[in-house]
Design the sequence.
C-alpha cells in the first residue's frame, strides 16, 4: 500500500486519540488489519477507505494523497481526480449520468457508490432529469425546478469540488426547466390558435424541441 495513505491513516487515528484496538472495533475489523494498514503492508479496499473517511468526517482524498489534517475547502475550479481502485488509472467523471469510468481499464462506478453522502442529492438530480424528459406540461417544469433547487440547497451544505460540479448541472437543469415552461405556454397558445401569443413565447426558445417548426407555422 502507498506509504502516504498509511501515514495519513495513522495520523488520523492518533489525532482522535484512538488505539488500534479501539479503531478496529469501530470498523469491525481485526486489530492486526489496522496494524498492517498503518505499516503499509496491506492495501485498504476503496469502500473501506470511504467508511474510514466518513468515520473521521474528512474527505477521502485527504487520506489518499493529502495531509490527513488538511481541511481546506477546494476551489470550484479544482478537478475531482481519484485513481481507479482496480488498475490505478485516471477516473473520468460524468456528473450528469452520475457515473465515473476508468480511462485505462474501462471499469465504471456510480458516483453515489464512491461518495455515499451524495446518494440522495444525485437521486434528486436524476429524478429532476427524468421529469424534464417526460411529459411536456407546465407541471413538469415546476417539479423539475423544485427538485433542482432542492439539490442545490443540499450541495451547498458540502461546499466541495463534487458539490460544485453537481450545482453546475442543476443550474443547467433550471435553465432547461425554464425553457420547458416557456415552450409549454407557447404550445398552449398555438393549440388554441392564439398564434401571435404563441409566437411571442416560442421565439424565446429557438431550437428547443419543435419550437422552430411551430414558429414557422405561426408566421404563415
Sequence:
Amino acid at each position: 500500500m502507498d506509504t502516504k495513505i498509511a501515514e495519513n491513516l495513522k495520523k488520523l487515528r492518533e489525532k482522535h486519540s484512538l488505539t488500534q484496538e479501539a479503531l478496529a472495533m469501530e470498523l469491525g475489523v481485526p486489530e492486526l488489519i489496522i496494524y498492517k494498514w498503518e505499516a503499509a503492508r496491506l492495501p485498504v479496499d476503496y469502500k473501506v477507505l470511504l467508511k474510514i473517511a466518513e468515520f473521521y468526517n474528512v474527505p477521502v482524498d485527504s487520506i489518499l494523497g493529502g495531509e490527513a489534517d488538511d481541511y481546506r475547502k477546494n476551489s470550484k475550479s479544482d478537478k475531482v481526480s481519484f485513481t481507479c481502485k482496480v488498475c490505478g488509472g485516471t477516473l473520468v467523471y460524468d456528473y450528469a449520468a452520475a457515473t465515473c469510468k476508468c480511462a485505462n481499464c474501462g471499469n465504471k462506478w456510480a458516483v453515489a457508490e464512491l461518495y455515499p453522502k451524495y446518494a440522495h442529492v444525485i437521486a434528486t438530480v436524476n429524478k429532476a432529469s427524468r421529469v424534464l424528459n417526460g411529459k411536456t406540461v407546465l407541471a413538469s417544469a415546476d417539479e423539475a425546478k423544485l427538485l433542482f433547487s432542492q439539490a442545490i440547497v443540499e450541495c451547498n451544505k458540502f461546499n466541495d469540488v463534487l458539490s460544485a460540479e453537481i450545482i453546475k448541472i442543476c443550474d443547467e437543469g433550471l435553465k432547461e426547466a425554464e425553457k420547458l415552461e416557456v415552450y409549454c405556454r407557447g404550445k398552449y397558445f398555438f393549440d388554441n390558435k392564439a398564434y401571435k401569443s404563441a409566437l411571442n413565447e416560442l421565439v424565446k426558445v429557438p431550437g428547443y424541441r419543435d419550437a422552430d417548426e411551430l414558429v414557422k407555422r405561426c408566421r404563415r
Summary: Strands lie at 91-94, 99-102, 108-110. The CA atoms of residues 2 and 40 lie 6 Å apart. The first strand starts at residue 91 and ends at 94. Confidence is low (pLDDT under 50) at residues 67-81.
